[in-house]
Amino acid sequence: MKLIGSYSSPFVRKITIMLMEKGITFEFVNENPWLEGSHAANYNPLGKIPALAVSADEVWFDSPVIASWIEQQGQLPSFIPAEPMDALRVRQLEALADGICEAAQLIVREQMRPPEKQSEELLTRQRQKVERGLDALEKTAAQGEWLNGQHISLADIASGCMIGYLNLRHVAPNWCVNRPALVKLVEKLFQRDSFARTAPPTP
After folding, report:
1. Last residue of a domain, one of 48, 72, 96
2. φ, ψ for residue 158 (rounded to 5)?
3. Residue ranges of the GST C-terminal domain (predicted)?
4. Which own/partner pairs from 151-154 qualify as long-range (CB within 8 Å, at least 24 positions apart)?
5. pLDDT at 144
6. How confident is the model over 13-29, as pLDDT tens digits?
């Protein structure tokens, strides 16, 4: 089994952590889809990461889909509740954390453009998405049921990877202000071996 992705991608990190936590053996194939000559499109027609090559004929892509496939293999611990509505709540929080990552990535890419070509409107809209998303996650984390609960869930993993990406790219540097539940969550997560071993390299 091969996991195709980049060490700095929060979506790839989410899948890596799931596999590590479940003790599933895999080979990591480092592919940056933004570099010329990347082979990411050989695994995903969209040229995006992560992709999970289970065999030559079976490849899964898009991190929520891969996460579902991993859960269906039956290895413990389970990161998605068995009850359908509970599972849906956790998956929606995963989508929220992933959406914050996507907004943060757009900010990073826009800021790589020459200053005179950057769109303040785009940057403002994406920053608002990040702030609103973090506020929503804080509210849920404070409740301690589907996020920041007794047992680690996919929502926890996705949120931890998202905040790790914000820290890496210096997006929303004050995210922790007035968000004590999220601070508690990441302090707990970042102590886990799976998170420590997948910390993205400093640019």
Report:
1. 72
2. -65, -40
3. 83-203
4. 151/77, 152/21, 152/77, 152/79, 152/189, 152/192, 153/79, 153/80, 153/81, 153/90, 153/93, 154/18, 154/67, 154/71, 154/79, 154/80, 154/90, 154/91, 154/94
5. 96
6. 999 999 999 999 999 99
pLDDT, position 202:
81
> Looking at residue 41, what DSSP letter applies?
G
**Among candidate residues 72, 107, 131, the one where a domain is terminated:** 72
Read off the pLDDT of residues 88-98 as tens digits, 9 standing for 90 and up. 999 999 999 99
C-alpha distances out from residue 12 to 8, 51, 59, 106, 116, Å: 8, 8, 15, 17, 32
Whether residue 95 sits in one domain with residue 28: no
Cα dist. 175→29, 130, 163, 172, 179 in Å?
Answer: 32, 9, 8, 5, 7
Q: What is d(CA 5, CA 165) in angstroms, rounded to the nearest whole number?
A: 15
Model confidence band, residue 11 (pLDDT cutoffs 50, 70, 90): very high
Residue 203 pLDDT exceeds 80: no
Total number of domains in the chain: 2
User: What pTM, to 2 d.p., does this model score?
Assistant: 0.96
129 near 103, Cβ under 8 Å?
yes
51 and 5 in contact (C-beta within 8 Å)? Answer: yes
Closest CA to 196 of 13, 2, 23: 13
Cβ–Cβ under 8 Å, residues 141 and 93: no
Pairing of β 2-5 and β 27-30 = parallel
Do 67 and 17 form a contact (C-beta atoms < 8 A)? no
